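Lab notebook, bench 4. The sequencing result for the construct came back, and we need a structural model before the next group meeting so we can plan mutations. Quick request posted to the team channel:

Model the 3D structure of this chain.
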Amino acid sequence: MFQEHPEFEQPQDSVILWRYVDLARYADLLLKKQLFFSRADKFEDPYEGRFSKTDVDESLKSAEKIKKLKRQNEKRTEVTISSWHHNNDESYAMWKIYAKGSYGIALQTTFEKLKRSFDATDKPIFIGKIKYYNEEEDRVRFDNNSFIPFLRKRTIYNYENEVRCCYALPQNAEEFEWQQQDTYNGVFVDVDVNALMERVYISPYSPNWIRDIVEGLNKKFQLEKEIVHSKVFESDEFF
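Done. Here's the predicted structure in C-alpha cell form:
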C-alpha cells in the first residue's frame, strides 16, 4: 500500500497524472490487475539511480567512496519504478515517445486516486516528484539507505515532469525471481484498477475503431470510465 517517506515530495492530491502505454499493455493491466514496476538499472538513462557526474568524479579519489559507488550500483537492481507524467492536459511528447503509433493509450488519474489504487497490495509503495539537476554542476547527496538517487534526473529529462512510484525489494530477497515484460526485468504490483483510472485517452494517431476495442475491454472487465479520443490534431475549419 502507499506509504509516506521523508525523501519523497508528494504533489497535491488533485494533481493530474498520466501514464502513456500501448493497447497491449492496457489489456495486460486489466487482465492482471497489476502495474509493472521496472528495475531501475533497466532504464535507458545510464545515470538512473546513480550519483551525479560531479560526485562520481570526486568519489573516484577515495577508496571509501568507491565502495559507496559500487553499493549504489547494486541498489539499482533492487529498486523498481512505475513512472507517471504530471500535466493538466495531454502531452504531444509523451504520445510520440511512450505511446507512439496507432495503438497508444493514456491512463489519466489524480495523485489521490493513484495512492488509493495501491490499497490492493501489501507491498510498501512510495510516491514522489522527480527533481531535475544539472549533471555538470549539481550534487546528489545521500547515504547508502537513501532513495534520493532515484528521485533525481538530469535536466535533459525535465519534459517528462515525472511523478514516480517506487518499490524496493526486501533485504531478504536474495533469490528473488524477476518477472519480465519485453526485455525489462521488474515486478508486477497489485492495484485496484477501478480506483486507479479516471479516464482513458486514445491516441490522436489511432483510427476510430480502436475506441470500440477499448470500450469492449472496459465492458468485459466491468470498468466504467470515460473514454476520450484525443483531439490534439483537430482544428476549426475557417475556409
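Residues 16-229 form one domain.
Will bring this to the meeting.
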